[in-house]
Amino acid sequence: MVGNPNCGKTTLFNALTGLRQKVGNYPGVTVEKKIGECYSQHGRPMKIIDLPGAYSLAARSPDEAVLRDVLFGRREDTPQPDRVICVLDATNLERNLYLVHQILDLGRPVILVLNMMDLAVKAGLRIDTHQLAAALGVVVIACAAVKGEGLVELKLAMSRSDLPLARHRWDVPAPIAPAVAELQASLSDADAQSPLIARAEALLLLTDFESVRIAGSKPLSARTAAVLAAWQQRCAREESNWSGTLIRSRYDAINTLCREVLRRPRPPELSGSDRLDAVLVHSIWGWLFFGFVMAALFFSIFSLAEYPMNWIDAHIAALSRGVKNILPPGDLRDLLTDGVIGGVGGIVVFLPQILILFFFVGLLESTGYMARAAFLMDRPMSKVGLHGKSFIPLLGSYACAIPGIMATRTIENAKDRLVTILIAPLMSCSARLPVYLLMIATLLPAAALPATWKAGLMLLMYLLGTLGAFGFAWLFKRTLFKSARPLMIMELPAYQPPRLKEILRQMVERSWLFLKNAGTIILGISIVLWFLTTYPKHPDPKASAEAQIAVSFAGQAGHLLEPVIKPLGFDWRIGIGLVTSFAAREVFVSSMSVIFGVQDNGEDTLPVRDALRAARWPNGASLFTPLVCITLMVYYVFAMQCMSTIAVVKRETNSWRWPLFQIAYMTGTAWLVCFAIYQIGRALDY
Amino acid sequence: MINGDDGFAQRLREMGFGEAALVTKISGRTTSLCQVNGTRIALNHNAAMAILVEALPAGVR
Fold it and tell me: Would you identify the CATH topology of the domain A2-159?
């Protein structure tokens, strides 16, 4: 299944396979091939590969290279597809037919799916599908995947064993023809390619400008490489523009076809989306609206989430009390109340805020505003040597750095892509949210201050992460990754009403993932941490909780770490939290619940924020002073504290070098910035 | 007319922003938003500087 970015391939793929791959209204949602299965009308299983969107087979970014290499059979891990479903955005037939024109060169059976036909009709376009099918000799299906229209017809077509081969009457432009013929012969003989694939490959190679090659793709034979080099040298010597000639020739053929099949009652006018864009990407109004969206997000996180959070908090406390009433005092009761309920409950309470964050992200993605935010951010991004396209992965990283890093595959320039990968984890992800919220709750007592203060402090942390990301991008682009000023070309999708069902589905999926983490990783770490803080037992059975934790395994390890973090205002107990949260940042909250819950020792466990406020240094001074709370938040803004992100960076850069560099520069920066804040704060008597 | 980086020029032409395209500017100063053949295309300053457009006489489309 192939097509231009944002033409509805994944929506169609989900409808056919029953899978739930992510969809969104911006280009570049799918960056890797996805495989699903459905059944033909005769009950035969069919495997469908959903490929990333591309404007052309001349790949300019790693996601486009996936499409090209699968279609050409270059990928050793994926067999060449036996038929190709070309999905087109019917509202923009000419541009979408360009990729189809290239795919028809491959000589595979093709099904054309004109998606968004409802929108095309609404825009006054009339597409004669019968004439299009007759002209190209392929099956053409009108479809509106979102409404489920045309799916039965598509399945019927996919089930056909006798799909016709396209009548692709197009001659290679004369200036390129001799080169194509010689290269085609070499690819057939020396690289064992079929004649049509060899011709299509020759066309690509001769008009190639350092297009992306990806790992696993087969290299060219020596003979073909020599033939190619000779023709490229000749083209350069004669100062010919083979690429321009080829594109013009294809568009001439497409325009001739469109004159036959497409009726446009009037010349294209400015649409509703265009008029909306005149305001929403305006240099003043656009920024005001962007600021309003961000402010609404942070205010909602604090004001709306408060009620469900209090409800969850109360039920967790009641559960803990219930267990204490049922079980006799002892290690098992402490394990369940302090380890399991305290650790997992400390995290689950933040679920409403995570849901609100994902609701807003879903809203931005499905309406098409995400791409506008990238447009607005292009100017500030250009100051640091990147362009607006890099902002989509960064914006996605506010939810989670992992999909954000995956989304960098749409960036054409390898150096820009690497810089974006390196700075993406600096954007405050949803896992940092519980840490910020806990620190803000400890720092600013409830009810005393309005939600706007807390939202403002939270916004400050997000801004700090964003500024840090920009600062490091500037530094990297001037030192390690110098390159020419980037050129950005990006399609902005039409605005669409939010697809609430899709947003809700994503919210449910993310919250399930969050709860699954709480029930597995966080539960496991909480139990291990409880064990490490409980054993070995203090020789004196009547020793205080503080004395017990000091002699425990965790206490001994924490004391070893304390000299490194004491200059930041952190004691060994916070140090334990920093180490355990290397698995995932939110583990810090459950660690604090376990460590300070263990110290409580009373019949009722204190809410963790109250336990933190009551925590003291050995000299009786308060541990979590406002300065320490702020320093700790800043530490989490900058430090690389996520094993999953490290694994993804390793996979995306194909090396351990960059994830290790990332850990060093991010955690080093966190230490230095926190040191400066704490020491200056102390000097100023805060 | 499109100048500059070959790969960029190729992509621009492939997206229908070729020499014969009719371009309508919608918004923007440093980053421009244009409509080409019914598609909204954003170009940053560097990209826009590589493209030479010719204004059509008033009333001609």
Answer: Rossmann fold (3.40.50)
